[in-house]
Amino acid sequence: MNTAVLMEHGIDYEKGLARFAGDQEIYEMVLLNFAEDDHCLIEARTAFSEKDYEMLFNAVHETKGASGNCDMTELFAISSELCEYVREDNFKSNEENIERAYPIFEKAYIKVIEGIKKAAQ
To answer: Which of 61, 1, 62 is nearest to 27 (CA)?
Structure first.
């Protein structure tokens, strides 16, 4: 994989690789699987459009975990922020923040997918 392309798309390859104990094959397989399985993005998009904040929380929280484990720094940061806004006890007072943060989340998610696919070519 082209690590420079990954870095350009918000993935810290070296830190991610270290998190996987230096096992390049497994780390890259996980990255490729992430890029091929966009169920969280689809679920988040649907939930956001329907203002289903419980479903949005679940999708964003799953993305937060995956992006954190793989050192997708930008996606992890916005996922963490958005998670806080859509927590059950927070979302009613954070609708404006959710409206602002969600498009950033989606853009970061797509950027990561595109970066992984490009880096794998």
So the answer is: 1
Which tokens belong to 55?
A: 């479903």
Over 80: is that where the pLDDT of 90 sits? no
pLDDT of residue 57: 95
CA angle 101, 118, 81 (to 5 degrees): 15
pLDDT per position as a tens digit, 26-61: 999 999 999 999 999 999 999 999 999 999 999 999
Best CA proximity match to 44, nearest among 113, 114, 108, 106: 106
| Cross-strand partners of 11 | 72
pLDDT at residue 82 greater than cutoff 80: yes
- Residue 4, token pair as written in the block: 């420079």
95 backbone φψ class: left, alpha, beta (φ>0; ψ -120 to 50):
alpha
Helix or strand or coil: residue 2? coil
Q: Which residues contact 96 (CB under 8 A, 6 or more apart)?
A: none
Beta bridge partners of 72: 11
